[in-house]
Amino acid sequence: MATFSQRLRELRQRKKYRQKDIADRLGITESAYGYYEQGRREPSYESLQQLAEIFDVSIDFLLGRTDEPTLNTKSPAMLTLDNPELGLAFISGGKDLSEDELEYLKESLEVFRRMKDRKSRDRQDQ
C-alpha cells in the first residue's frame, strides 16, 4: 500500500491542485504542505481531517491503512449508536460491544462534555 506522502501527492495531482491551493485551504504555508508530501512532517489531526474532506477520501485511505478511498458505511463492521445526539460510530469491532459497554461509553462521553464545557467557561472567566 502507498504511504501517506505518496497518497497525498497522487490525490492532489489527480484533482489538479497546486501545493499552494491545498496549503491555503489548510491555513499553512506552501513549504509546510510540501513537507507532508515529502514525508518530512506529519499533519495535525485537524489538518488530516481537512485533507480527507478536501480529497473526499477516508483518513484510513490517506494513511495507507486501506486501498478503499471511502469508508463503506454499509459494512456490518459499522455500528451507529441509537442516540443520534451522541453522534458516535464504532468502526470495526463496535458490533461486539455489549449494552453495558455502550451505556458506559455514553456516560463517559457526557462526563467528558461536562468537563470540556467547564474548562471552556473557566478560560472565558480569566
Could you explain how this protein is built, in words?
- This protein has 126 residues and is mainly alpha-helical.
- It has 2 domains: 59 residues, Orthogonal Bundle (434 Repressor (Amino-terminal Domain)), CATH 1.10.260.40; 48 residues, no CATH class.
- It is built from 6 helices and 2 strands.
- The protein has a two-stranded antiparallel ribbon with strand order 1-2.
- Strand 1 and strand 2 form a beta hairpin.
- It starts with a helix and ends with a helix.
- About 17% of the residues have low confidence.
Write a brief structural summary:
With 126 residues, this protein is mainly α.
Features:
single chain, 126 residues, mainly alpha, 434 Repressor (Amino-terminal Domain), 2 domains, two-stranded antiparallel sheet, 6 helices, 56% helix
